[in-house]
Amino acid sequence: MKSMRYIVTRPCLQEGSLSILKYLQTTFPQNGPAIFVDEKGDEHSVQVDTERRRVWGLGGLYHAQHLGVNDVLIITTLAPARYQVEAIVKPYAPLPSPRRDPNRPPETRRVVVSSTAHVREVRMQVIPLPTDDHAEQQVEAAGNSTPENAGSDTKVIGLRINSPEAMARSHSDKPGQDKSNPVNPGQVNSSQVNPGTEQAKADLAAPASHPAADHSATEASPAQPVLLSSAETHLADEAHLTELARLTGYRLDNLGGGVLRLNVELGAHGYAVLIALDEQARTAAAWNEETGYRVLMCSEDQHPQGVSRLTREAVAALTENARLAPLSPVDLRGYWKAGHVDLESAASVAELVSAHLAQRGIFSFVLLSLAQQPAHSVISVPRLADRLGSGVNYAELGNVLETLTRAPFLALTPLPGGQYLMRVGVTDLLTDLAEYADGIRRRVRAPASAVGNVVDPASAEPVRVETIRTNAVPREGIRA
Which of 88, 121, 149 is a domain's end point? Predict the structure, then answer.
């Protein structure tokens, strides 16, 4: 039998599965259980899902064979629904050796040749290129190779002259000096200075005359956090609340004294939320006179006493959730009523938004599956549910199909026996819906020429109505 080669990927290891790629479709032609036999003769029961193009239940095989990413499976068909599997574990590649550049110019370093309490003589020493595994030892040896007048303890310059550290270091380097009697810099005779170090003394004296500049150049000061003033913090909080109110349907009012109000005018369902931007705002007159839920604006790590809190992190999270799916004051009223609105409350709102997005995703999933069905054909619900898999249950599928039978879709017609007639293809349906939405959009944005007057019963004022004609042929229930 022909053997097929499959490379294991990270999702395969995580899910314990195998992807049925195009070249493997002949190897796994049908759904149902199957048996994988490894090299030791152990049998592993798996499930072949040709609709989703996966083979499930391979976690035990991967674990037993100690497989990793990019390892190889050799799959051979022994009989229908029975396969021989051979695992090939790839060895790890050796680490590449460092590259040697023969044309690399020689490196130099500054080494201390002679030092006193005030002056150190510095020369440039050439460092040979490393050619073997002991490159670091050679660099160290090159740094320590100095002329005869250099002491046995040769160091790279790291201290400024006239600094206390330099004096202590130079004093401790002299082998004949008594450590119990420190050297006074003022008592050092000029004759003790090596004549050959006069040029080095002149070169090093210039940077020593500006210790403040040298210190600022050698030591980087840590970045200081930007602290906002109280007024700037209030303006930032008000801007964030304004965006949240715009997305969720509140009206934001500034009552003065650091007190803001989120107001909802929904008749019996209306309410207000008073927000104090700081502790001082709780003493303002508007805070005590107005009615509604009361919260104090603070950070997530702050826990004020005697008042509910609204954290800035929660406001940012609610704003992001409102951008993903519509949120209304009715949805948020329970959170204001419960007390604190923090990241825990925002996580609960995120679950609500996720449920809305999941419903939208299910509707899109069903619609894309129906796109494979031609117009004027009969749809079998069990067959459609089998095609959708476990991602959509029967209740959710029934709700979507019932929605598609009503206006403005009118894409399906219920038939006896739980079947539906596909009245129009999904492509034509979406085209008609786009034209219908475009017509409504033009009516809302541009009420131009009037054909008739309609009286609004609430205001008793005439409203101009525009008739829009399109070149598309309208279908029943979808008219522009």
Answer: 88
Task: Name the residue range of residue 27's domain.
Answer: 3-88
Q: How far apart are CA 292 and CA 425, in angstroms?
A: 52
Q: Could you read off the pLDDT of 258-300 as tens digits, one per residue?
A: 999 999 988 888 999 999 999 988 989 889 888 889 999 999 9
Show Cβ contacts of residue 331 under 8 Å, excluding neighbours closer than 6 positions. Answer: 349, 352
In terms of domains, do 23 and 84 share one? yes
CATH of the domain at 347: 3.40.1350
Residues 383 and 327 in one domain: no
Contact indicator for 87, 73 with CB cutoff of 8 Å: yes
Number of domains in the chain: 3
d(CA 238, CA 236): 5
Token representation of residue 319: 């704003």
* pTM for this model (two decimals): 0.45
Pairing between β-strand 72-79 and β-strand 3-7 as defined by DSSP bridges: antiparallel
Mean pLDDT of 245-249: 93
Residue 472 burial by Cβ neighbours in a 10 Å radius (0-12, 13-18, 19+): middle
Residue 247 lies in a domain: yes
| In the predicted structure, residue 413 carries a pLDDT above the cut 50 | yes
Residue 447 included in any domain:
yes
Q: Of the residues 49, 69, 88, which one is the last residue of a structural domain? A: 88
The span from the CA of 123 to the CA of 157, in Å, is 10
Residues 291 and 403 in one domain: no
**What CATH number is attached to the domain comprising 83?**
2.40.330.10
The answer to whether residue 174 sits within a structural domain is no
Q: Within 13 Å and on the Cβ side, how many CA atoms surround 226? A: 3
For 367: left if phi > 0, alpha if psi spans -120 to 50, otherwise beta; the answer is alpha
Which of these, 170, 146, 147, 148, lies nearest to 158 by C-alpha position?
Answer: 170
pLDDT tens-digit map of 187-210: 444 444 444 444 444 444 444 444
What is the DSSP code string of 275-314?
Answer: EESSGGGGGSHHHHHS-SEEEEEE-TT---SSSEEEEHHH
Residue 181 lies in a domain: no
Residue 161: DSSP 8-state: T
Q: Return the closest-CA partner of residue 381 out of 357, 360, 358, 405.
A: 405
- Read off the pLDDT band of 161 (50, 70, 90): very low
List phi, psi (to 5°) of 227. -100, 125
Give the residue among 170, 332, 158 at the shortest CA–CA distance from 248: 332
Categorize the per-residue pLDDT at 455 as very low, low, confident or very high, splitting at 50, 70 and 90. Answer: very low
Nearest residue to 445 via CA among 462, 473, 468, 470 = 468
Q: The tokens of 329 are what?
A: 């004051």
